[in-house]
Amino acid sequence: MPKRFSAIILLLLALAANAAADVRLSSIFAEGMVLQRERPCRIWGKANPGEAVTVAFRGEELKTTADALGRWEVFLKPGSAGGPFELTVQGTNTIRIPGVLVGEVWVASGQSNMEWMVKNSRDAEKEIAAANYPQIHFFKVEHVVADAPREDVKAAWHVVSPQTIGDLSAVGYFFARDLHQQLRVPIAILQAPWGGTPAESWVSPSGLAADPALLPVYSYWARILENYPAALTRQEQSVAKWEADGRKGARPGIPTGPGHPHQPSTLWNAMIAPLVPYAIAGVIWYQGESNGSKERAPVYHRLFSTLITDWRRAWGQGDFPFLFVQLANFGRVGGVSGWPELREAQLQTLRLANTGMAVTIDIGETADIHPKNKQDVGLRLALAARTLAYGQRLVYSGPIFRQQVTEGSSLRLFFDHVGGGLVARGGNLQGFEIAGADGRFVAAQARIDGGTVVLSSAEVAHPVQARYGWADDPVTTLTNKEGLPASPFRTRN
Q1: Does residue 3 register a pLDDT over 70?
Q2: CB 488 within 8 A of CB 474
Q3: Count of domains in the chain?
Q4: What digits encode the pLDDT tens for the residues 241-275?
Q5: Is the pTM of this model over 0.90?
């Protein structure tokens, strides 16, 4: 072999060896990162097997050695909020990360209403101009799917400013803004939603497989795969026609099938699993529209409860606060709707410890599945966080049905989260129905009596059940004096 080729090969081998020896970090460890206060924070990465690694932060120095697969980790001791600081990681090379803050870290996930950007929300121009919050940071995860859990994500940190906020999650921003104003500490949002995706895409494979009651999730996907070849043929024909017609309008989309973000567990694998070792305060979640058909809504309570317990198991931080948004009113669901049943499933999920629900049945838009008022959504989630995560004594929820009592020809309904008292917004209590043993519901006359609501109807002599807001786009007016709306419900399932 000519000497010059031998020299080139040796040089390449030397470069490869040096590259392999370099300490490497997950993408989340970068300038602008925020670490969770008052909790051990895991710092992890890769290096050469057996390589010594030193991590230094806020006067603390930790040493470890990469294992046989080149993996290493250390845990920083819990620290108070503050910054900016510098995080240093040293092996054969040295990585210095400036601008590190310590505060509160929340994951924001779900589908399009969580992903909905500030620039498309209510009062966008005003909100963007006022977004000067250098202590609110977003780690925005890009869309990607995976068949198996990944170790890292493609993402970047963004400091909130008028130049950056427009493309970030509106719900996440308004939630973070309220927490920052109340707690006066840095706030981070790990933004990882994907519009149009179902809940099962966000559950780990082991989480789904552990519950036989979730077999319908796999059955639903199996039917999609069975129909995929025919759907792909139709799509190809549509594309051919689109091209023949001069490519007018949008190109026909690719049908749901292998590698699609609707495939069970693909988004957990790609967008959540890489974040799991990172210490957090809790999760905010806005999703459900894609599971809102009559066929899929009945399993949502079990599915969503599994998602919450699955994420908590993976993070290993106990029952951290998991706060979610109940579906808003919307009048154009299409097809056979299971939206009332899905809202009920979300309501039932409050049985899990340390969960909170932001009711939005009063701020949706009849003709738009993406309500522009994301300010109140973020504020209501923040109220729950301030109570459940930070111990503030607040009325953080609207009235939640507790029980009913029959009183002659009337039903008396009792509620939790009454706050300062029950109120009929606009002075007229609407949205209630009652039924007798025949199950035929009619509009009820409703009146507030102390902390209860009394229902009756001349058409139902012996009422046995009631419901409230039981429609895709109902008229609802029951709130507490704090202005938080009551959740839709039915008294018998």
Answers
A1: no
A2: yes
A3: 1
A4: 999 999 999 999 989 999 999 999 999 999 999 99
A5: yes
| Contacts of residue 60, Cβ cutoff 8 Å, sequence gap at least 6 | 76, 77
Would you state the pLDDT for residue 4? 53
- Here the tokens at position 395 are 């009325």
Cα(476)–Cα(430) distance, integer angstroms: 6
Residue 483 covered by a domain: yes
Give yes or no for residue 66 having a pLDDT over 50. yes
Per-residue model confidence (pLDDT) at position 21 = 59
Residue 440 belongs to some domain of the structure: yes
Whether 452 is covered by a domain: the verdict is yes
Q: How far is CA 389 from CA 38, 50, 171, 284, 322, in A?
A: 13, 40, 18, 12, 10
Owning domain of residue 406: 400-490
Q: Give the per-residue SS3 of the chain.
A: CCHHHHHHHHHHHHHHHHHHHCCEECCCCCCCCEEECCCCEEEEEECCCCCEEEEEECCEEEEEECCCCCEEEEEECCCCCEEEEEEEEECCCEEEEEEEEEEEEEEEEECHHHHCEHHHCCCHHHHHHCCCEEEEEEEEECCCCCCCCCCCCCEEEEEECCCCHHHCEHHHHHHHHHHHHHHCCCEEEEEEECCCCCHHHHCCHHHHHCCHHHHHHHHHHHHHHHHHHHHHHHHHHHHHHHHHCCCCCCCCCCCCCCCCCCCCCHHHHHHHHHHCCCCCCEEEEECCHHHCECCCHHHHHHHHHHHHHHHHHHHCCCCCCEEEECCCCCCCCCCCECHHHHHHHHHHHHHCCCEEEECCCCCCECCECCCCCCHHHHHHHHHHHHHHCCCCCCCCCCCEEEEEEEECCEEEEEEECCCCCEEEHHHCCCCEEEECCCCCEEECEEEEECCEEEEEECCECCCCEEEECCCCCCCCCEEECCCCECCCEECCC
- 9 pLDDT above the threshold of 60: no
Interatomic CA distance for residues 335 and 13, integer angstroms: 61
Give me the pLDDT at residue 261, please: 96
Question: In this structure, is residue 484 part of a structural domain?
Answer: yes
pLDDT at 14 over 90: no
pLDDT tens for each residue of 313-350:
999 999 999 999 999 999 987 766 899 999 999 999 99
Q: The tokens of 267 are what? A: 């988004």
Asked if residue 6 has pLDDT above 70, the reply is: no
